Structures are given as C-alpha cells and as structure tokens.
Amino acid sequence: MLQIKAITIGFVAAAGLLLAGCYYPAPVPAPTTQTVPASFDASWQAARGAAADVGVRVNDEDRSTGTIRGTQGASNVVITVVQQADGSVRVGFNVTGPAGSGLQDQLTRAYNRRMGR
Length: 117
Fold this sequence. Notes:
This protein has three helices and four strands. It is of the alpha+beta class. It has a domain at 40-114: Outer membrane protein assembly factor BamC (TATA-Binding Protein, 2-Layer Sandwich), CATH 3.30.310.170.
C-alpha cells in the first residue's frame, strides 16, 4: 500500500512539474487600423467622375436621394450613393442593357481609382 501511495505521489509530482514547465504567452492583440469612412461628398464626386470616365451621359442626378441616372449607348445606368447609419457610404452601380458590355465593372474600377483604392 505504501508503494502504491509513493507511486501515486510520484505521478502527481511529475505531472505538476510538467504543467509548471508549460508556457502560454499572452495573446498579442491584433493591430488596430482605423479607416476613415469616405464622406458622402467624396463618394458622390467620385461616382459622377466615374460615370464621365467611362462615357456615361448623365441625364438626371438627385443628390438628396443619392441617385445618378444616365445612359451609355443602349445601356441604362443608375448609380446610388447612400450614407449608412454607421457613417460609411455605400455606392452601387446598376446597368441594364446589352449583356456582356462590362460597363458595371468599368464603373466600379473607375470609381475605385478615383477613391484611391
């Protein structure tokens, strides 16, 4: 019985030494980056400029609703610029017309260039 008790104590001591040797470093916090949300004005101007860059003829723009409407050839274009509740701005490009024109991608690339992205 004494031998079993000594073995048990030995195992407990060995386990304690093993655990004492384990090191768990404190997690390094992820670097914080703050992005300044684009202003409505900058987004609006970039959207208008993107339309001009790809040859969209603007027929109507209503800043109060954040809507720009225009055409390019047989395609109709609606650009929306919406201020979100969190202060960010969402810009959308909707193109209807001939399939495969790539106009929506062109508008997106032109907008991103103007926004420095």
